[in-house]
Design a protein that fits this description.
Elements: E1 3-4, E2 15-16, H1 21-32, H2 40-48, H3 52-62, H4 64-74, H5 83-91, H6 93-122, H7 133-152, H8 155-184, H9 198-209, H10 225-254, H11 265-310, H12 329-345, H13 349-352, H14 354-377, H15 383-401, H16 405-425
Parallel strand pairs: 1-2
Helix pairs in contact: 1-8, 1-10, 1-11, 2-3, 2-9, 2-10, 3-9, 3-10, 4-10, 4-14, 4-15, 5-6, 5-14, 6-7, 6-11, 6-12, 6-14, 6-16, 7-11, 7-12, 8-10, 8-11, 10-11, 11-12, 14-15, 14-16
Length: 437
């Protein structure tokens, strides 16, 4: 599917290439930094004590082979779909479909969960007497409605909103690190863990670094995806590793109390460093951070639905692109309808556990896909790249082995549902794997 110039309306059936380098960077950052960072330092410190910053830094650096694989793959494609098209070219339509299907289920449920977390933060500004279930539901719906509206805007306007929200959520976090610098001058005190468990500390850190792959689904709406995606992905990921490590270092030096459970560690840190102003700034940052995630993640999901329709695995209704805006509105409407339903029903908990397991499977599939894509295209594969791929496969396999059994049961059910949908859609697929006209 071709894309039009970002300066002109899109005719029906065409996307608009409206995201530049910084817009893609904002999308990637919003995919990684959501609600988790606001509890990450305290959660990891409980299991690693003063070693928490080094654990987070080490996990981030250990995850680099996986990110490098995605950066290399992104440099080879400019279509919509991200991991769907990477795996499809390497292993066929069925594998590509299952990759996208599992991602859609996991990220939609995660968006619903994040909308509820956003309401929890926003209601901190209200008196306790007004923090009712009705108020919580109203905030959830308002957040979903705002995110839905941004997703229906022309790409240029969505790009601006995403950048604005990114600045709004990063500024307080960077200032928090700056305020903690005096306490770091002599190095953080060596404090013990409340319950030493290096494995738990590592797993918590891994969870915080996932989500970077979501923005790659918008390859068909990036101006220069083959050049910009690799740069944006590596730059944002390295920045996130540094930011998470610095926040954990600051927390251990200023606010960590061994044995005391702290589920809002950055809020505790902000209150200690800047009083009520610091607390308000962190609550605001959390709200913008989670809102950015509720905007970005369903945006990626709607493009997955579009990519799945393009390979003939979903009804054509999902692939209709609005003339003028260049937005797959049907896919956006469907995605947010599911998000709203899950968020308000409270029935998303079982699906939410799919998130990490599904992402690890996608990471494993994409790492395995890179050598296949190179071979199919006749591209050289250096020993260095093969070593990185081997490292990525090893990391994913080790983390998959640590995943919860409930996640695998849910993931297995999702795959079976996916096979049923593939069977229903089978007449739309030609023997070569392309959608039938």
């Amino acid at each position: 599917m071709s894309a039009t110039s970002p300066t002109s309306p899109a005719p029906s059936g065409q996307l608009v290439r409206g995201f530049g380098l910084w817009g893609l960077a904002a999308l990637i950052l919003n995919g990684i930094i959501g609600a988790g960072v606001f509890a990450l330092p305290g959660s990891v410190a409980q299991f690693a004590g003063s070693w928490a910053p080094l654990v987070i830094l080490g996990v981030g650096l250990a995850f680099l082979p996986v990110v490098l694989v995605f950066a290399w793959l992104a440099g080879l494609f400019d279509e919509t779909g991200g991991p769907i098209i990477y795996v499809r070219e390497a292993f066929g339509t069925a594998a590509g479909f299952q990759t996208g299907w599992v991602q859609c289920l996991a990220t939609t449920a995660a968006s619903a969960a994040n909308a509820n977390v956003l309401a929890d933060y926003v209601l901190r500004f209200m008196p306790a007497t007004q923090s009712t279930a009705l108020a919580h539901g109203a905030v959830v719906l308002a957040a979903i409605a705002l995110a839905f509206t941004v997703n229906l805007l022309e790409i240029r306007n969505s790009d601006r909103w995403t950048k604005l929200i990114t600045v709004a959520k990063l500024t307080p976090l960077v200032l928090l690190v700056a305020l903690a610098l005096p306490a770091l001058a002599g190095g953080p005190a060596l404090l013990p863990a409340g319950e030493w468990s290096l494995a738990q500390a590592i797993l918590l850190s891994v969870y915080a670094f996932t989500g970077f792959e979501g923005a790659l689904c918008l390859g068909g709406e990036a101006r220069n995806p083959k050049a910009d995606f690799p740069r944006a992905l590596m730059g944002v990921f390295l920045f996130t590793v540094a930011l998470y490590s610095a926040l954990a270092w600051g927390y251990v030096a200023t606010a960590f109390a061994p044995g005391a459970a702290d589920k809002a560690s950055l809020l505790t840190m902000g209150t200690m460093l800047a009083g009520a102003i610091g607390a308000a700034a962190i609550i605001g940052a959390a709200s913008f951070s989670i809102l950015g995630n509720v905007i970005t993640t369903p945006m990626n999901t709607s493009r997955r639905l579009l990519a799945l329709e393009q390979i003939g695995m979903l009804p054509r209704w999902f692939g209709v692109i609005h003339a003028g805006s260049g937005i797959p509105r049907n896919a956006v409407v469907f995605t947010y309808a599911v998000v709203a339903l899950l968020a308000m029903s409270g029935g998303f908990a079982a699906l939410a556990v799919l998130s990490v397991a599904a992402r690890l499977v996608v990471y494993l599939a994409c790492a395995a896909a890179l050598p296949m894509v190179h071979r199919r295209r006749g591209l050289p594969l250096t020993a260095g790249k093969l070593a990185v791929v081997a490292g990525a496969l090893t990391i994913c396999a080790l983390l998959i082995a640590q995943s919860d059994l409930k996640a695998w049961l849910g993931l297995g059910l999702a795959v079976l549902i996916g096979f049923a949908i593939k069977w229903i859609a089978a007449p739309k697929i030609t023997p070569g794997g392309a959608a039938a006209g």
